[in-house]
Every structure is written in C-alpha cells, then in structure tokens.
Amino acid sequence: MLAKPRPLDQIVDVVDHGIAAKAAGLDALYGHLTPLEIIERSARELFNDEIAAVSSFGADSAVLLHMISKIDRTLPVIFLDTGKHFEETLSYRDALAADFGLTNIRVIKPEEAALERIDPTGNLHQSNTDACCDVRKVEPLARGVAPFRAWFTGRKRFQASTRATLPVFEAVGPRIRINPLAHWTTSDQADYMRAHALRENPLVAYGYLSIGCFPCTQPVQPGEDARSGRWAGHAKTECGIHLSGLEKSLTDASL
Fold first, then answer.
1. pLDDT tens for residues 76-94?
2. Which of 132, 133, 216, 239 is catalytic?
3. How far apart are CA 199 and CA 40, in angstroms?
C-alpha cells in the first residue's frame, strides 16, 4: 500500500506540476527561436534579474558564453570548482572571462565539512563515482542556482544519446533550465567558433571532447560520441546535475 502523501509532499507536487507546465509552454512559444533570441528573451523579459548561466568552461563552453556576453556581461555565470579540475580548465575559465568581458563569475565549491565526512582522502571517485559527483557537483550546484528562477546551460542533443530529445526549456524542481543550443549540430558549433574566432579549451586538441574532472575524463576514441570519455568503463553517462538528484536538492526545504 502506498504511503499517504504528507501535506508538504502535496505542495511540492503541485508546484512541480505548475513549473513543468510553464516550461512546456515556454518551449512551445520560444523553443524555435535562435539561441541568441532565446537568451535575450529569457534574460531581459522572462526571468529578468533572476537568471544565471552554469558553465563547466569545457570543450563546448565558449559559444554560449560568447552569446551571453552579447546580451549582458554582468549576468551571473556559475562555475563548479570540484577540486578535481584540470589546470587547463581553470586557466581557460579565466581566459574566456577576460575575452568576453564577463564580470560576474561565481565559483561554487563543495562544502568542506561534507568532503571531510564523505571523501576525506579525496579518492571517492575510485570506489563510488555517483557519491563523488553528489558531494562535489550536485549539492554545490543546488546552492549555486538557489537564488535564481532559471539558468542557462550549453547542452546539445548531439552530445549523447541521453540528450537526444533535449528541450530548450525544461523544469528542474521549482526552477527552469534553459538549453538555447539544444538543436545545434556539430557543424553549427564549429561554424560559430570559427566565425567569431573563439578560443578552445586547450584539452580539445588532445582529444578531450567533453571535459570534467581529471580522474574521470579521458580522450574520446574515433567514432564515439563526445561524452564517451567521461567515466569510461562505467555505465555512468551524466554527473547528476542534469538528473533527478538535482531536482531533489532543489526541492529541499533549506533552499
């Protein structure tokens, strides 16, 4: 027999249903627009002053950040410093911020107390990649986006089979995640990079087509999708910040 929902559960269900309907409506109204139009409409009208961007400053990050800089260089850009990034990624973050004149990079880190409790040796990734991502990415991102009603990502459908039906607007707990580049192809990405002479993450030249933490990222093999180098040898394909773990964090009463 199913447990009877508590009043709080019922309230959360109603809120989540409302946000899901809103996201679907926005997707129907604006999902067909160009990425730049989606960013401008979202930042200046739909979620004015209550929207951020989340960027890994990885292989595909320059395009979204360049577009954002055309609309609002002061828009908050959240970067998760997991403590396990490649040095090249950290340098790339600073270089792109300077290139585009971005003035509001917000670096979010895991809680020290949580790391001491859950990953005191720093080797949790060797035994439990999901738990490592939870403490280093999912919980910090929930804190990072807590002040906002919506946020942008640079995710695209071509990146992995798990993203094949990615909408432009989607509900995540009580907030909306916006993927302006969802419909773009690899050619769209490459053409934009060339047209605007955008610098690449230096690791791309070595075959790193999707870049996360250094212990769990390796170069992509020929013929494989861009995310195949993430958690190679594991069934895992996402760190969790795009899955239900984040939704749970975002509906926590503390946020």
1. 999 999 999 999 999 999 9
2. 239
3. 23
